Amino acid sequence: MKAMILSAGFGKRLRPLTENCPKPLLKLGNETLLSNTINFLKKAKIQKVIINIHYLGEQIVNYLKEKKFDLDIVVINEKEKILDTGGGILNAINHFKEPFLVINPDTVWSLNYLNELQIMKDKIISNKKNKCTILVVDKLKSFDKDFKGDFNLENNLITRKKKENLNYIYTGLQIIRPEVFFNINLKVFSINTIWDKLISNNEMFGVESNINFKHVSTLKVYKNLDIK
Fold it and tell me: What does the pLDDT look like over 20-37, one tens digit per residue?
């Protein structure tokens, strides 16, 4: 399975730290958010990774050259304008022929997530109706208590029916089939555009994480995360 790391964002909620440093290169103990994510993917036996860049992208390119990570990395530079999460994946879709993993480097990915990733793989491979599987966590397990919740999970299906009472947070890990991006005429759009369509067709599934969720969401949260 191939993977894509979404690394093009501005990291506005982490300013002033991100005024001169792209968010994926923020320190996380002895690592960076990006190296932590890449090392997690290596442990998951992912052999090819696509990384999209935009804001301060040359720093990420130079960092990858310096670190020489031992896997096949392709960088896609969204030079003209940032394409948002959905547009960024669509822009790279030619690299994927089979279900692929999309991961946000904002989350603190520990090796404990490997078992949950395997469950996600098993679910999407065994069910053709399953167009996308995302890893979600009960918002009570989130280090950042300001998260409102993104979804609900009912009989393994992702829903947004009770919008005033959404109990699950998206962790930043999904496996998605490339065909859901076919015949889309948009260039700049959020992945929510895809998700909303899949939810309405009962084609989006969820796996509940049992791991305490640590996510670099704001400057305050980042400063209070205790990462060794």
Answer: 999 999 998 889 999 999
